[in-house]
Amino acid sequence: MADEAHHKVSEAKPRKLLLIVIGLAVIYVMTFMGGFLQDTQLNFLNYVFFSLLLVGGILLIGETVKSEVTGITKWILFMTGISTTLLSLFFVSYDLFRLSGNEGFADSIEALLYLITFIFWILIVASLVQLGRMKSPGSLQS
Asked: Half-sphere exposure of 43 toward its Cβ, with a 13 Å CA cutoff?
């Protein structure tokens, strides 16, 4: 009986969290593709995509806090949201320094962007694995 109640509670939230994580991955791929538009008139699309990432990261953090997930799953989802918001903030910083002509500082921020991107993708994969484990019957929520 308790297992049935736990199953009902844990089905809706992980599905929503899973959709947010998948959405963040898709939006990031769009930001990568938008990078090819950097020195064109369509550069504004980068700001749109990174704004979507920022909103998605904040949404993931909020949904993670409200969700029933615990332990390592909650930590991974929370860190995924943090890394997503950091990507957005560092991109804006990078672009401001690049456009103002401070190439040296922009290059340093770009290196940090690559590091945060690497961490972001590790966390996306870990989030997908953890949420996938929660959906499988008989799995333990961690």
From this structure: 10
Task: With 0.85 as the threshold, say if the pTM is over it.
Answer: no
Across 122-139, average pLDDT? 81
Q: How far apart are CA 76 and CA 82, in angstroms?
A: 10
Q: Residue 39's pLDDT band (boundaries 50, 70, 90)?
A: confident
According to the 3-state scheme, what is the secondary structure of 36-66? HHCCCHHHHHHHHHHHHHHHHHHHHHHHHHH
Question: Would you tell me how many other CB atoms lie within 10 Å of the CB of residue 99?
Answer: 10
Q: How far apart are CA 141 and CA 73, in angstroms?
A: 8
Alpha carbon distance 69, 6 (integer Å) = 11
Average predicted confidence (pLDDT) for the chain: 84
Classify 90 as helix, strand or coil. Answer: helix
Q: Report how far residue 21's alpha carbon sits from residue 13's, in angstroms, rounded to the nearest whole number.
A: 12
Number of H helices, E strands in the chain: 4, 0
Name the residue among 92, 84, 78, 95 with its Cα closest to residue 119: 84
Of 116, 119, 134, 99, residue with least CA distance to 18: 134
